[in-house]
Amino acid sequence: MRKERLVTLGLAFMLAAMALAACGPASEPVSVEGAGTVASTQTPIPTGAPSPVTPSEPVTLHDWFFSEITTLDPQLAYQVLSINHIENLFVNLTARDPTTLELVPEAAESWQFSDDGLVYTFTLRTDIPWVRHDPETGETEQVLDGAGNSRTVTAHDFAYGIRRACDPGLGSYYSAVVAPLIKGCQEVLFADDPADIPRELVDVIGVRAPADDTLVIELAFPASYFLSMTPMWTLAATPQWAIEEHGEAWIEPGKMVSNGRYVLHEWQRGVSISLWHNPLMPQDLRGSGNIERVVARVVPDASTGYALWLQNEVDRSWIPDLELQAHLEQFPDKVEQIPDLMVFYFGFAQDKAPYDNVHVRRAFSAAFDRQIYSDEVLQGQCLPMVHFGPPGIFGAPPIDEVGVGFDPEFAQGELAEAGYAACEGFPQVTLLTFPGADFQHQAEYAQAQWAEHLGCSPDLIQIEQLPFAELRAAISGPAETRPEIWFGVWAPDYPDENNMVGYMLWCQADHPATRGRECSGLDDLIVEARQEPDPERRIALYRQIEEGFFGPGGEAPLMPLCTRVAYTARHTWLDKGPVALFGGEPWYNWTIDWEAKKAALEE
Fold it and tell me: How confident is the model at residue 192, as a pLDDT?
């Protein structure tokens, strides 16, 4: 075994890319989804949600989001809102330093890997308690086992969580992200008969806990980026005994057993959620912030949420497109531009006409002017993308070197090749997007582009809007009910192209964007790039893969739009520190100037 060295994850390159990537989404928030070296007009305010605390109450972060939280189960989470909350309710094996992005210890104090890169051994701290919070009394207590002993997080809890992620019966969206790396996990996850998996197959999953403080993970192949995945929630420890006792209800208030900096106090699905500080967290893991409670409500659109911010009822807010310029002029000291690597795209239903035809997909993608979309529709907050890997991701090609992009002549030729010259005979299709005026505006821009450059009348592109959870269900349904096109978002979970084209577009990925896509030589390249130890060779392979998907003769499985840097409104009393580019937001490191907030609340 050799000792682990901390990695920087290419920070200098990442920050340089971010400086160029002055990009952003529609103002409304969207719910979504280790390079080489390795790491040691105002809408009425909704009712039914909690009112802001009075200044005499504990230091409280007030927030809003426009979609319902789908789950608080680490192995099941796939939505940004869920992941943000799980980041604060549970600890992970490792974390990222918020400033340097280096991997740092969290539950794991140290780690080693074998000379062949196949076996990783983590030494865990044993003083992180499992706790349960009682919403009625407000008390948080350490959980006891059957013998009356205090339960702390052990390697067995991490082993259980990882094995659980390999279980096809769980229905975990992110299982397919981690399964290819862990020995035996993929074979179980994709077993021919998920209801009858041989015990001997389960027994070879490469995770074990020889001691409470020792976790051993065996990989299926040497993956230089594996450690960059260890802050992921999918690999988090989960309480087997609580899950077996309560089933799916184990994440409900009063039943949840957690181990993070906060505990779940209240969760009214579709209405609000409240987290309280965990008083039993070891002092050195509590974070650098001072926020004792987090209270957030569901708000249907950005205009309403922004109105809450203007009234000092929330500490931060997305800014509606139509309000952005006025906000920048009126509140220059209350705006924050947040870089991230989130990619917006239009997905195609490849399992039904007309987008089962590659020429149609190429045509619609090439008939969309992403520069105008970025500059005018999104008011300059977005960097156009014609391939899928964003700047700052290891293996992503330079942003303007791979992909067709806007080419009306090429688009018209492709549509004619598909038998729909000038859109003659093209069927009516549905474009599904999120709720709100901003998303409606974006969809109407797409309608106009395809009318202008392809001759497709806007009435052929029927726009529908659904909240995230309902949209997700709709695009995951059977072909006959799926929308033909939908607005989607993918946020990388770790800084490697394997998490972009290597997972999202892989033919074996359980993702709506790949439904109906048959495996091809590109998938062989995806597997080769995933397992290739030479960084330069991996870069070349990913360029070839991106070209194979988005070049002139590419499969065009989806239509990349842009990668963002979002403007948000933030009251000056809130200090969030560095932006978390990967994983959830660390509210435990945020600080509120409580005296300043109290003064504003008293006005």
Answer: 87
